[in-house]
Design goal:
The protein is of the alpha/beta class.
Length: 153
């Protein structure tokens, strides 16, 4: 699987570990930066990863910042991206299984490397369940289109 990675300065070190884990698992990693722990703006990296996923240049993405929340908020501005911040394995499983999330956001100041690895592994091994969840995911994707008012049908 091709995986897009991105982080800001707070997530740089954990992103580097994740890149290594994913490569060891046989995934092709495309790293969109940052390449140091010097202060930078998280939306730049979130948008780069989100566009790669949306455009089909990557099947999934992983973003890392201090909390994971800012990265997820930025990535979710890109239509077709379903990013979820996860701080535990259960959330990573459910966001893939029920919501077909295609971008995982992690907080380097919240989860340590051991838990982060377990979350990443759960996110990548869990498949979308489809069924009744597919209808709901379709509504999420439809709401991201400009012609949609955002009101329930």
């Amino acid at each position: 699987m091709i995986v897009a990675l991105g982080a800001d300065h707070a997530g740089y070190r954990l992103k580097s570990e994740i890149a290594r884990w994913l490569a060891e698992a046989g995934h092709e990693v495309v790293d969109f930066g940052t390449d140091s722990d010097e202060s930078c703006d998280y939306p730049d990296f979130a948008f780069a990863v989100a566009h790669a996923v949306r455009d089909g240049r990557a099947e999934r993405g992983v973003l890392v910042c201090g909390s994971g929340i800012g990265m997820a908020m930025a990535a979710n501005r890109v239509p077709g991206v379903r990013a979820a911040p996860c701080t535990d394995v259960y959330s990573a499983v459910v966001t893939r299984q029920d919501n077909d999330a295609n971008v995982l956001a992690l907080g380097a100041r919240i989860v340590g490397p051991g838990l982060a690895r377990a979350i990443v592994e759960a996110f990548f091994r869990t498949e979308f369940a489809g069924g009744r969840h597919a209808r709901r995911v379709a509504k999420l994707d439809q709401a991201g289109r400009p012609e949609r008012s955002g009101r329930p049908a």
